[in-house]
Amino acid sequence: MVVVLDTRPGKDLRPRHPEKANRPETPLLRKPEWIRVRAPGSPVYRETQDIVKKNGLVTVCEEAGCPNIGECWSKKHATFMIMGDTCTRACAFCNVRTGMPEALDRAEPEKVAEAVAKLGLQHVVITSVDRDDLADGGAQHFADVIYAIRRAAPGTTIEILTPDFLRKPGALEVVVEARPDVFNHNLETVPSKYLKVRPGARYFHSLRLLQRVKELDPNMFTKSGIMVGLGEERNEILQLMDDLRVAEVDFMTIGQYLQPSRKHHPVIRFVTPEEFKSFETIAYAKGFLMVSSSPLTRSSHHAGEDFDRLRAARRAQHQG
């Protein structure tokens, strides 16, 4: 099926991916058994859905078509996507709408904070679209959301998954000053794939962003993730791990790329669970405090449990 219009309930019929409309269609590979997931629908899932809708919020769980939405929402875990549902970038892997975003909702920080409190979240993940149209890339809005959650739910730990703030001097400092517990920025793929997969971004800028977080606050946990199955070579993944360790990144995630439509970048291959386990073993050997590597791993999947393990790993490291 070609996804050109956004036909989900409550959405208008603007082109969801106008920049992909004229791209040639690519085949959708049949998913192996290990990548299958159950359809969502539990009572707790619907309760989470209602809270999200009543607060007028956007989640990356829905917008990016995450395969883990049924599991996460059934545990009242949702990843909030701030600054709208329209991204200024056009990455070849992403299912988030592309176009010119609307103005920021100044009430959004309080809405997100209210939802976090209602859901009783112990750990929350906040991400966003890219907002290249804003002078600071949305950095102050990120900070405002963090501050609002601290007021409404002081016991909740906060993880952010940010854009790269490319050509936005001073933006990163604003976000780090708000002191999230985890700063996540995904490299997404190896350098050789950036031109086709992530054309609006720059690999070494993203790497430097993560390194700069540690320079600003050495105690802040940093995290980054990649997708595999895009045609990368094994040695490229191992080199990327080394690059992240040089930047002192604490936590790495590795998951299988899943093609949203025939207009998106094709899945070159499905990486086996055994290969994911091998990547996990190697990443731990390279010094990461935490590694999540499996076909269905996503940046915010099991984020709360992983954060607890991350803190425990740091304590053990210091005691050792």
Automatic annotation (TrEMBL):
Domain annotation Radical SAM core: ranges: 73-289
Stretches of the chain forming a coiled coil according to its record: none
Residues the record lists as binding [4Fe-4S] cluster 1: C61, C66, C72, S300
Cofactor note: Binds 2 [4Fe-4S] clusters per subunit. One cluster is coordinated with 3 cysteines and an exchangeable S-adenosyl-L-methionine.
Pfam family membership, one: Radical_SAM
Cofactor: [4Fe-4S] cluster
EC number: 2.8.1.8
An MF annotation (GO) of this entry: metal ion binding
Record key words, sorted: 4Fe-4S, Cytoplasm, Iron, Iron-sulfur, Metal-binding, S-adenosyl-L-methionine, Transferase
Keyword Repeat carried by entry: no
Name of the featured protein: Lipoyl synthase
Species for this entry: Kaistia nematophila
Gene this chain is encoded by: lipA
